[in-house]
Amino acid sequence: MFEQTFKNLDDVLWKEAGCSSELDYTEQSSWILFLKYLDDLEQEYEQEAELGDIPYEYIIDAEYRWSTWAAPKKDGKPDRDNAKTGTDLIRFVDNKLFPYLQSFKESASSPETIEYKIGEIFSEIKNKFASGYSLRDALELVDQLTFGSQAEKHELSALYESKIKNMGNAGRNGGEYYTPRPLIRAMIQVVQPRIGERVYDGACGSAGFLCEAFNYLRYAPDGSSRPLKTDELDALETRTLYGKEKKSLAYVIAIMNLILHGVDAPNIIHTNTLAENLADVQEKDRYNVILANPPFGGKERPEIQQNFPIKTGETAFLFLQHFIKYLKAKGRAAVVIKNTFLSNSDNASKALRQELLENCNLHTVLDCPSGTFIGAGVKTVVLFFDKGEPTQQVWYYQLDPGRNMGKTNPLNDNDLKEFIALQRTFADSEKSWSVKIADVDKDNFDLSVKNPNKQEAAALRDPQAILDEIAGLDAESKEILDVIRGLL
Question: Which domain of life is it from (predicted)?
Answer without folding.
Answer: Bacteria
